[in-house]
Design brief:
- The chain has two domains: about 80 residues, no CATH class; about 240 residues, Orthogonal Bundle (MetI-like fold).
- The chain is built from 15 helices and no strands.
C-alpha cells in the first residue's frame, strides 16, 4: 500500500500541471483581461481615476488617459488614446510583460511553494484573502456533506429493505420533490418562512456569527454558529441528500439480489447481520466513489448561490467575483487549491475502499 500511495502522490504533480496548463491556455484567449478591465474603468475619467490603481505597486498618476505620447499601437480593446507607456506599466504590474511560457513556469514555481502573490484588484495577498473566506466554505462544505450522507445512507438502506412498501413510495415522492426544487429557490422559501419574511423571524440572514460573538460563552458560541448555519445547510442539503439516497438504495438493492446474500440467509444468519456484515461493505463502494466529487462540489461550486442569498462571504463567491473581475491571481490560486484538495480526497477515498472491503488490493494493480 505504501508504494501505491507514493505513486498516487507523484501522479498528482503532472495532474496539477495539466489542470493549470489547460486553464492557463484558456485564459490567454479569454477577452477582457485585467489590463482591459482597468482601461475600461479609466476611459473617459480624469487623473484621479488613474490614481486609484496606484496602490498595486505601480505609480500611474503621472500618466493621463487621453495623451498621445509616442502614438498608440496597443492591441487592447478600448486603449485608443492612452499613452503606450501607461499600457506598458499596466502590463508590467500584472506580469503580462513576460512571455506566456515564462509566466506559466513562474506561476508553477510559486504555487509549489504556496506563494500565490497578491490580488490584482484587492490590496491584500491571495493567501490571506483565501484564509479569510475559508471558514465560510469549510462550514458549508463539511457540514453539508456530513448532513447529506448522514441522512442518505440510513434512509437509502431503509428504502432498499422496504422496497415497494408505503414507506418507500412516500419517501421517494418527497425525495423527487426535493431533487426537483433548486436549492436557491428553497433558500428563498426558507427566508420567507423563517427569516423575517411574511411569517416568522427566527433565524439570521448574514454571516456565520452574531455581532456579540466575543462576549458569548463557548456553549453559546456553538449554538450561535449553528443558528446561523441552519437555513443555508437545509437549503444545500435538500437536493444533495436526495441524489445520495437513491444511489444508496439502488446499490443495496443490487447487492441484496445477489447469490451470496441468499446463501447467507440460508445459513441462518440474522437479517441485520446479512445487511451490515455482508451487503453494506459491497454496496457502499459506489457511494464512496462519488464522495470526492460531492465534497468538492459542496465545498465550492454548490455554495455559490447560497453564499449570495444568505450574505455568506466564502470561497464560492470569491471565485465567481474573481472570474468576473478577471482577477487571475485569485482565480488560479483557488483553482490550484481546490484541485489539490480534490486529488487528496480522491486518494483518501481509494484508501477507504480497502478499509471497507479488504479484498480490494491497489498495491497489485497499475495506477
Amino acid at each position: 500500500m505504501g508504494a501505491y500511495i507514493l505513486r498516487r502522490l507523484l501522479l498528482m504533480i503532472p495532474t496539477l500541471i495539466g489542470i493549470m496548463a489547460i486553464n492557463f491556455v484558456v485564459v490567454q484567449f479569454a477577452p477582457g483581461g485585467p489590463v482591459e478591465q482597468i482601461i475600461a474603468r479609466l476611459q473617459g475619467t480624469d487623473v484621479s481615476a488613474t490614481e486609484r490603481f496606484s496602490g498595486g505597486g505601480g505609480d500611474f498618476s503621472g500618466v493621463q488617459p487621453g495623451s498621445e505620447q509616442g502614438g498608440n499601437t496597443s492591441t487592447y480593446r478600448g486603449a485608443q488614446g492612452l499613452d503606450p507607456a501607461f499600457i506598458a506599466e499596466l502590463e508590467r504590474e500584472f506580469g503580462f510583460d513576460k512571455p506566456p511560457l515564462e509566466r506559466f513556469g513562474l506561476m508553477l514555481w510559486n504555487y509549489a511553494r504556496f506563494d500565490f502573490g497578491e490580488s490584482f484588484f484587492r490590496d491584500v495577498s491571495v493567501i490571506d484573502l483565501i484564509l479569510e473566506k475559508m471558514p465560510v466554505s469549510i462550514s458549508l462544505g463539511l457540514w453539508m456533506t456530513l448532513l447529506s450522507y448522514g441522512i442518505s445512507i440510513p434512509l437509502g438502506i431503509a428504502k432498499a429493505v422496504r422496497d415497494g412498501s408505503r414507506f418507500d413510495v412516500w419517501t421517494s415522492a418527497v425525495i423527487v420533490v426535493g431533487y426537483a426544487v433548486p436549492g436557491f429557490l428553497f433558500a428563498v422559501l426558507l427566508i420567507v418562512l423563517f427569516a423575517g419574511g411574511n411569517f416568522l423571524d427566527i433565524f439570521p440572514l448574514r454571516g456565520l456569527t452574531s455581532d456579540n460573538w466575543e462576549q458569548l460563552s463557548w456553549p453559546e458560541r456553538i449554538l450561535d454558529y449553528f443558528w446561523h448555519l441552519a437555513l443555508p445547510l437545509t437549503a444545500m442539503a435538500l437536493s444533495a441528500f436526495a441524489t445520495s439516497t437513491l444511489l444508496v438504495k439502488n446499490s443495496f438493492l443490487d447487492e441484496i439480489r445477489k447469490q451470496y446474500v441468499l446463501t447467507a440467509r440460508m445459513k441462518g444468519l440474522a437479517e441485520r447481520a446479512v445487511l451490515y456484515r455482508h451487503v453494506f461493505r459491497n454496496a457502499m463502494l459506489i457511494v464512496i466513489a462519488g464522495f470526492p466529487g460531492a465534497f468538492i462540489g459542496a465545498f465550492f461550486a454548490g455554495s455559490l448561490l447560497i453564499e449570495q442569498i444568505f450574505s455568506l462571504d466564502g470561497l464560492g463567491l470569491l471565485g465567481f467575483e474573481s472570474v468576473i473581475q478577471r482577477d487571475y491571481a485569485v482565480v488560479f490560486a483557488t483553482l490550484y487549491i481546490f484541485s489539490l484538495i480534490g486529488l487528496i480526497v480522491g486518494l483518501i477515498s481509494d484508501l477507504t475502499y480497502t478499509w471497507i472491503d479488504p479484498r480490494i488490493d491497489f498495491e497489485s494493480r497499475e495506477v
